[in-house]
Amino acid sequence: MEPGGGNRLSQVDGPRQGRVLARPGITAMRLGSNKEDKSMKLAKVLSVLLAGLLLGLGSGVALAKETVKVAFLGPLTGGVSAIGVGGRNSAELAVKLRNADPKAKYHYELVVLDDECKPNTGVQVATKVAADKQVIAAATHYCSVVALASVDIYHKFGLPVVVWGAVHPDITYGNNYKEIHRVNGTMINQNEVAAKFVTGLGYKTWVLLYDTTDYGKGMQQYFSKYLTENGGKVLGSFGVGADQQDFTSELTQAKTLNPDVIWFGGLTPLGVRIRLQMDKLGVDSQFQSCSGIISDAYIEGTGPLAEGTLAFREGEPVENLPGGKWFLSEYNKAGYKEAPDAFGPFAFAGMNMILDAIEAVGPKRQAVVKWMGNVKDYPTIVGPVTFDDHGQNISPAITKYVVQDGKWVPWQDSEYASGKRQLKRR
After folding, report:
1. What is the band of 16 on the pLDDT scale with cuts at 50, 70, 90?
2. 8 Å CB contact between 140 and 172
3. How far apart are CA 140 and CA 182, in angstroms?
4. Residue 148's domain is classified under what CATH number?
5. How many structural domains does the chain have?
6. Angstrom distance (rounded) from CA 193 to CA 191
7. Does residue 366 register a pLDDT over 60?
8. Are 364 and 357 in contact (CB under 8 A)?
């Protein structure tokens, strides 16, 4: 022992010395050298920390979970913001429910960005979120023009995304990007069903109006294709600007052509203006559109003129979805003031799949991409999801809707289907 070592131990360790000396095997270490003495102190500290940890776990105190960032992108301002806000709330609900689950491996933080339904803004926010390496995956975009403009960015940065609303087929099929997936269907499915249905109602002639974005042009392309295949005749087709206010010229020509149906391919703001101006100019054809106008905002904007409008959308009505009633119950319990709107269930399903992937393979982008590539018959609230080799869900249902008494009603549940009410006829 070092000279004076006994005094130092007595002064520093005090009462602990007796406990140490009473334990054979440790005594020699404690009394051997400074190096051994320091080792013993370190061992004791680690023992105390371990004991505290075990005590904390035994008393129910949980260790803090690793925080993982995920993102939501959609139109939170502008003419289709009602759908974007409903989507955001739904994605947020998925995150809240997962964070409340004690079995979840991670704590999730949701990053929310507004793409404004504008390609330039969409590219900016997509770049921002994709460049943030802490963001592992994202539920993205209602507007096809934004989704189309952003896919290259997600591919470049290797960010896995699940599209929750945009329907242009080139989002998934335009490239072979393994990072891109989509839970909802495409405008191909939608327009095939729409054309068969309306020609089956006995309508023969159409005038088509469509916005000149990729979304509107795609809708016009596929609806025209399937309409012609099913015996319908297009009397005239007019492209209109996405921000156009006055449709007098197009609707005056349409009135002269006297079609059975005026069809519109575009989003709610233009759909509202066209329907109002049809009435003003005395165009009394049946009005038909696409999923782009299926929102409460269309009915609010057109009032009584919305009655009898036909439109088509991917998925079943939310209350008829496999998990629809449960979703609505949880959504209402969460206290959201805004409705989930038409695509909220898809945003919830997409975000929930992202969280499932991270739970399964960890917070690694490449691992999540690989997991998504193997999704087959995966249960979600919108039904089973199977991604094909381009990340497209191959099993989306298409629902036919008609406005009845200020609500979008599935055709089969409406008084129009039963014959109690009649659509407009020439």
Report:
1. very low
2. no
3. 9
4. 3.40.50.2300
5. 3
6. 5
7. yes
8. no
Contact 172, 392 (CB under 8 A): yes
Tell me whether residue 214 is in a domain. yes
Question: What domain range includes position 15?
Answer: 5-58
Closest by CA position to 142, among listed 169, 177, 167: 167
| 316 Cβ neighbours under 8 A, 6+ residues apart | 324, 382, 383, 397, 399
Residue 316, pLDDT score: 82
Cβ–Cβ under 8 Å, residues 73 and 118: no
pTM flag (> 0.70): yes
Examine residue 426 and state whether it is found in any structural domain, yes or no.
no
Residues 331 and 250 in one domain: no
Q: Residue 299: helix, strand or coil by DSSP?
A: helix
Q: Which residues pair with 107 in a beta bridge?
A: 67
Residue 168 has a pLDDT of 96
Q: What is the mean pLDDT of residues 108-113?
A: 98
In a domain, 242, yes or no: yes
Residues 380 and 247 in one domain: no
- Amino acid 63: pLDDT: 64
Residue 59 CB partners (closer than 8 Å, separation 6+):
none
Q: Are residues 194 and 310 in the same domain?
A: yes
Are 221 and 132 in the same domain? no
What does the buried/exposed string (b/e) look like for 98-137 if buried means 16 or more CB atoms within 10 Å of the residue's CB? bbeeeebebebebbebbbbbbbebbbbbbeebbeeeebbb
Which of 46-55, 173-182, 342-351 comes out lowest in average pLDDT? 46-55
**Spatial distance between the Cα atoms of 11 and 29, rounded to a whole number of angstroms:** 18
Query: Taking all residues of the chain, what is their mean pLDDT, rounded to a whole number?
Result: 88
Q: Are residues 263 and 276 in the same domain?
A: yes
> Of 400, 413, 348, 395, nearest to 190 (Cα)?
400
pLDDT (average), residues 142-161? 98
- Dist. CA 66–CA 277, nearest whole Å: 55
- 423 assigned to some structural domain: no
Q: Tell me the percentage of the chain whose pLDDT exceeds 90.
A: 80
Residue type, 247: F
